[in-house]
Amino acid sequence: MQNSILVAAVGLFCAASVAELELPPLLGNQMVVQRRQAVAVCGTADAPVRVEMGGASATAAPGDDGRWSASLPALPAGGPHTITVSSGDEVVTIKNVLVGDVWVCSGQSNMFWRLEQTDRGSEFMESASDLKNVRLFQMQKTWSRIPEERVQSIGWRMSSPATAKRFSAVGYHFGRILNAEAGVPIGLIQSAWGGTPAEARGRGGGRGWEGGGGGRRVGAGGVARLGGWWKAGGWAWGGGAGIGLGVADGSLAAGSGPRKDGMAMGY
């Protein structure tokens, strides 16, 4: 089941206030792009832009505000790839790019709950470097009364003891298990802040992350897909069969929502 979630995410972070060649933080080294759908690349520039990846290329012309957007053909899971963006004499190279599945891990304090705070967390942190195809992206906790043009983040990072320890425990275990089950690279984007509503973490009144029929959706309390919540432990709310993720032992348990299994991780 494929979706447009990365395109939506890139679109949200593409705005910028300068016209020189610049890419949003979501586009950077170690990133994962969604497989089997067009690869969206965007930014700002003051001259025509050429984008290259996997033997394909695309061009774009910046608008009056300097913003541009280009689309490359879909690729199967794999990598690593290099994305080259050039405009005039300027060149930006994005290295070690994987193609796989990208998920947004959104929620309140329980989604923000770090791996280092969980039972057996140190055990999973020690083996984090083994997950070569799991990449992590964390949004910094900033706020504004008006929509911001750019997300604040230090960018994509490889899974390692240092990066995994402060990442969402729910998101990390979800990605770890999904990577093993699906056998494709997994990109995890953490957007979580205790006490905040879902509307504050998406465009269009909280509906910006919702896919069409059969697409994936990110709920206010966890990583989700339509037809059944992928949810961390606790209360798994949603239609159809639910999957509870026990953070303590990192195991998956099938069930139907609503169900209660151990510590509550959602609302």
Please write out the topology:
Elements: H1 5-13, E1 32-34, E2 39-44, E3 49-53, E4 56-60, E5 67-72, E6 78-87, E7 90-107, H2 109-112, H3 121-126, E8 134-138, E9 157-158, H4 161-164, H5 169-182, E10 186-192, E11 216-219, E12 222-225, E13 230-232, E14 234-235, E15 241-246, E16 251-256, E17 260-261
Parallel strand pairs: 1-7, 7-10, 8-10, 13-15
Antiparallel strand pairs: 2-5, 3-4, 3-6, 6-7, 8-9, 11-12, 14-17, 15-16
Keywords, separated by commas or semicolons:
267 residues; mainly beta; Immunoglobulin-like; eight-stranded mixed beta sheet; three-stranded mixed beta sheet; globular; disordered N terminus; disordered C terminus
Question: In short, what is this structure?
Answer:
The protein is mainly beta and 267 residues long. 14% of the residues lie in helices and 35% in strands.
What kind of assembly state do the chains in view correspond to? single chain
Order of helices and strands: HEEEEEEEHHEEHHEEEEEEEE
The secondary structure category is mainly beta
**Helical fraction:** 10-25%
Secondary structure: number of strands? 17
Q: Give the distance, in angstroms, between the N- and C-terminal Cα atoms.
A: 27 Å
Mean pLDDT across all residues, rounded?
75
